[in-house]
Please model this.
Amino acid sequence: MLCIGRITKVDGIRHFHDGKHRFYLEYRCNKPVVTSDLCGRCTGRTTDKIQSSGKFNHGRMDQTIPDHSHIYGGTHYQAGCIANGPPSTAAIQEAEEYHRIASEGIVLQNTIVPIEDVIIEDIEPVVEPVIEPVIEPV
Model:
C-alpha cells in the first residue's frame, strides 16, 4: 500500500492571472507503508513556510486540503483567484488532471452530503404501548 500523504513539488508551481502569486499542483506521496496510512516522512511534516519543501504538511489525500496549504482547490487557492485573478484555463485543466491522478482510489473521510441530496421520508413515529401496572388486592 502507498502513503496517502498529499505533497507538492517545485515543478508543480503554477501562477494566478497576475503572474506573481502562485498555487501548487497536487501530488500523492509514493512511498510504501506497512502499518499506517502515512509514511514516516509524511507523519513528521510541519507547516514551515516553504510550500514545496518536503517538510510541509499538505494533509492527507482522504481529507480536505488544509487552509494553510496553497494547493489547487483549497481555501488559499479560492481566495487567490479573487485577489489575483484565476489562472489560465489550461492551468486549471492541468491542476484538475493532477488532482484526479493523485486521488485515484481515495475515498474522502467526513464527506458532507448537501442537504438537497438528502431524502427525508415521512416516517410515522413509533408509539410504545402504555402498560398499566397490575395491582392485586391485599
